Amino acid sequence: MTRSVKTLFLDKSITALLLAAVVALVFTITTSVYVKNLERENGALRAQLTEIASLAGDAARIKSTVESKEKKIGLRKTKGIVSTLEQTLGSLGLKASVIRPLEKKKVNVFTENNAELEIRGTDLNSIVNLLYRIENSPLPMKIKNAEIKTTFEDPDKFILKLTVSLLTRA
Questions:
Q1: What 3-state class would DSSP assign to 110?
Q2: Would you say 92 and 71 are in contact if contact means Cβ atoms under 8 Å apart?
Q3: Which residues pair with 99 in a beta bridge?
Q4: Which of 47, 70, 113, 165 fits a disulfide with 75 by CB distance 3.0 to 4.6 angstroms?
């Protein structure tokens, strides 16, 4: 009987060891699967982080470019569209018969100031020079509407009507 007790005890020990080995194996497999999933997720997050860092660098570069352009063109408070047009006309030796401010529109952080300009009795060369100065001005101006008519008295003289807008930071 002692032999059967020893065998029974040995069988229980072997069974317990086998059970412990199976539990350890299941635990090891579960842990390795969990670790692989975490490593895959970590790799995806690292890729996203490098992409975000790249985009942050691009955003900082664009911001500095915009700030330098704003400083260059003086996109702060300006005197107004009427005085800006008068200075442009004065530099070309032209005189406007009508300069009148129109409505102001607020667009995001900018204000768009519009003005109507009329010049009578000017030649085509002066018109081209004026349009060039407005389009290539250091201030952000644009021509919204242009109308050119000839005069009855002299076909070489023109009447120019422009609607010009100036963007300023609000």
A1: strand
A2: no
A3: 117
A4: 70
